């Protein structure tokens, strides 16, 4: 089974990597976690400046380099934008008919899962792995979705990409909050400096 963990990764940070690594190693039946790069989340405001797709993709590749457990999935970059998760899952199933996919989401997204397009189909046909997020208690999973939704006690850290972007713009050294090499890449390409997202 492939666990699929989507995000804008703007930028990718150690919090993302901790959850992805935990799911790949501690979730029964999971062979790998694929970190799915999203160009735009339909449920989020587009007001937040995204670094260019290729910059975010390169930072993800750096973060996953050398790992047999984590990989990068860029399929959404070639899909119409905004894209919906159900469409991504269908495309991946067509591309890899021999693989089973299960979506990884935080408790914050679980709280609004009914706002997702075709959410019942996602749960029924693919399944979810839900990890904790501060301030979002996870209620008991409805019996109709037993076996389709797995709640995991993945360790989490209270780091957000928004906070990191703001810190970088203020000139803070956030090297230890990011995967190896990512901070150097951000500095080299002048990403997030004074609100500049790069191209």
Would you kindly provide a written description of the structure presented here, covering whatever features stand out?
The protein has 199 residues and is an alpha/beta fold. The chain contains seven helices and six strands. The chain has helices spanning 14-26, 53-64, 85-95, 107-110, 119-125, 161-169, 182-188; strands spanning 2-7, 32-37, 70-73, 101-106, 128-131, 149-151. A six-stranded parallel beta sheet has the order 3-2-1-4-5-6, with helices on both faces. It starts with a strand and ends in an 11-residue tail after the last helix. Residues 195-199 have low confidence and may be disordered.
Sheet with the most strands, sense and barrel status: 6 strands, parallel
Note the total helix count: 7
Record field, number of beta strands: 6
Rg of Cα set: 16 Å
Mean pLDDT rating: 91
Please report the distance between the alpha carbons of the first and last residues.
35 Å
Gross morphology is globular
Q: Can you list the strand order of the major beta sheet? A: 3-2-1-4-5-6
- The H/E string reads EHEHEHEHHEEHH
Strand content: 5-15%
Estimate percent helicity.
25-40%
Flag low-confidence runs. Answer: 195-199
Structural class: alpha/beta
């Amino acid at each position: 089974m492939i666990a699929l963990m989507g995000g804008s990764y703007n930028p990718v940070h150690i919090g993302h990597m901790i959850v992805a690594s935990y799911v790949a190693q501690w979730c029964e039946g999971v062979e790998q976690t694929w970190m799915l790069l999203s160009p735009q989340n339909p449920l989020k405001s587009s007001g937040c400046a995204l670094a260019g797709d290729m910059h975010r993709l390169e930072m993800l590749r750096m973060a996953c380099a050398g790992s047999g457990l984590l990989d990068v999935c860029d399929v959404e970059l070639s899909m119409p934008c905004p894209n919906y998760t159900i469409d991504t899952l269908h495309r991946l199933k067509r591309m890899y008919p021999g693989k089973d996919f299960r979506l990884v989401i935080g408790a914050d997204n679980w709280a609004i899962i009914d706002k997702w397009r075709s959410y019942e189909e996602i749960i029924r046909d693919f399944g979810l792995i839900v990890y904790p997020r501060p301030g979002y208690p996870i209620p008991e999973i409805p019996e109709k979705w037993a076996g389709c939704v797995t709640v995991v006690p993945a360790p989490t850290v209270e780091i957000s990409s928004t906070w990191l972007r703001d810190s970088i713009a203020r000139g803070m050294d956030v090297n230890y909050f990011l995967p190896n090499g990512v901070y150097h890449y951000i500095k080299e390409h002048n990403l997030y400096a004074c609100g500049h997202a790069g191209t």
